[in-house]
TrEMBL record:
Coiled coil: none annotated. This is Anaerobic ribonucleoside-triphosphate reductase-activating protein. It is an enzyme of class 1 (oxidoreductase). Keywords: 4Fe-4S, Iron, Iron-sulfur, Metal-binding, Oxidoreductase, S-adenosyl-L-methionine. Activation of anaerobic ribonucleoside-triphosphate reductase under anaerobic conditions by generation of an organic free radical, using S-adenosylmethionine and reduced flavodoxin as cosubstrates to produce 5'-deoxy-adenosine. One of its GO terms (molecular function) is ribonucleoside-diphosphate reductase activity, thioredoxin disulfide as acceptor. PROSITE patterns: RADICAL_ACTIVATING. Its EC number is 1.97.1.-. Residues 136-157 are annotated as: Disordered.
């Protein structure tokens, strides 16, 4: 059986204007290892709160919306990097702009040298990186939760 046939997700939401620039369809992956104090969505920490869904079905739903670009969020998309990279690659090939939110920093991802994580990183157009810090909440209109997080554009190496 193909081990990346499914991804564990909380939800797919369309027409978001708060998860990246413009109008976006957002895949919320289930499971997050960071457990940031003050996380706005602690139910996203546990995979058992999500559902397994066919990766191709996710791609089909994202591509079915001609108006939106694509954001991968969570939870932690890099914890399911193999599935996330397949989704990101297919959507990018179809002309979608890809944002990825992660609790890891770009440097941590590069240092780990995991092939699936690197493939996901290098497919993204924009990376919002770093763990949420409740002592540095960003009160300006922004796509990040705290000011230590960065909104980075490719290239990421
Ligand atoms: S990385 Fe995001 S989803 Fe994960 S615990 Fe931190 S704030 Fe919550």
């Amino acid at each position: 059986m193909n081990p990346v046939a499914t991804a564990c997700i909380l939800d797919i939401r369309h027409d978001s204007v708060v998860d990246g620039a413009g109008l976006r369809s957002v895949v919320f992956f289930a499971g997050c290892p960071h457990h940031c104090p003050g996380c706005h969505n602690p139910e996203s920490w546990h995979e058992e709160n999500g559902r397994q869904i066919d990766v191709q079905a996710i791609i089909d739903e994202l591509l079915d919306n001609p108006l939106t670009n694509v954001t991968l969020s969570g939870g932690e998309p890099f914890s399911q990097a193999r599935a996330a990279k397949i989704i990101a690659t297919a959507c990018k090939k179809a002309g979608k702009d890809i944002w990825v939110f992660t609790g890891w920093t770009k440097e941590e991802l590069l240092e780990r040298e995991d092939p699936d994580e690197l493939a996901l990183l290098f497919t993204a157009d924009t990376l919002v990186d770093g763990r949420f810090d409740q002592n540095q909440i960003d009160t300006t209109p922004s796509f990040r939760g705290s000011t230590n997080q960065r909104i980075l554009s490719r290239p990421f190496s």
